[in-house]
Recover the amino acids of this structure.
């Protein structure tokens, strides 16, 4: 059984047309409870509780904060369930308290969530550093240059850069040396090659005859003009040099 509708504070204020005035002490208390935030986290909270995933803005690695159970969310559901099972006046009251508890969790979600986020941020603070040059939050284990006090994008680690440059230079030098060697002396690149045999559909092996069935390929079946000896291409009807009909 659902409890009667309860007017929320924000709805009541809007209906009355009045704006609550906060005292100086209340404003100071509100300012003191402000929670600093960043944009390098994902909110994974559920009705069971609060949890946040913080990640490095450079490499994407990260950590999940400890799960913080929500007392009002879990207790409210127990009361609603128990009230529905018991029934009667006692069950009706228990169910109503359960609805009220869930409503209070939703109504106080901002404050409760801020406390949970603040606690999670304190838990994760030791694992991240903010670079004051680019403003990114990075992981301290991989992407932070403690010697320079900046992220490795703004201040790369020199030993890693030197190792990378040496590897790149080796690849470049090997490429130059390999380019100087003639790797085509045993390769027939003048005659047109056939990759698959037209007879057996197998791979030809790059020779003049198929390595599987022995069918003559394009390189072996070349035709020449019987008059002047000019090579005739596939589909040639007349020799392009002397005009003799191809046979």
């Amino acid at each position: 059984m659902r409890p009667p509708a309860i007017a929320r504070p924000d709805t009541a204020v809007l209906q009355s047309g009045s704006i609550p005035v906060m005292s100086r002490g209340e404003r100071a208390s509100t300012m003191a409870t402000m929670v600093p935030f960043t944009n390098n986290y994902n909110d994974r909270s559920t009705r069971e509780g609060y949890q946040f995933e913080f990640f490095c803005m450079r490499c994407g690695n990260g950590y999940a904060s400890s799960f913080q159970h929500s007392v009002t969310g879990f207790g409210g559901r127990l009361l609603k369930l128990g009230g529905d099972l018991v029934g009667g006046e006692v069950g009706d009251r228990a169910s109503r308290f359960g609805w009220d508890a869930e409503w209070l969790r939703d109504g106080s979600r901002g404050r409760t969530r801020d406390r949970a986020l603040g606690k999670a941020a304190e838990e994760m603070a030791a694992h991240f550093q903010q670079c004051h040059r680019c403003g990114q939050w990075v992981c301290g284990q991989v992407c932070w240059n403690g010697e320079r006090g900046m992220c490795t994008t703004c201040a790369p680690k020199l030993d890693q850069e030197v190792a990378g440059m040496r590897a790149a230079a080796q690849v470049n030098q090997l490429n130059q040396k390999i380019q100087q060697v003639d790797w085509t002396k045993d390769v027939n690149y003048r005659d047109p090659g056939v990759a698959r045999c037209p007879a057996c559909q197998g791979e030809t092996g790059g020779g003049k005859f198929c390595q599987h069935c022995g069918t003559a390929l394009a390189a072996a079946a070349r035709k020449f003009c019987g008059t002047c000896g000019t090579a005739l291409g596939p589909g040639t009807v007349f020799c392009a040099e002397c005009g003799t009909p191809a046979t």
Notes: Residues 158-179 form the longest helix (22 residues).
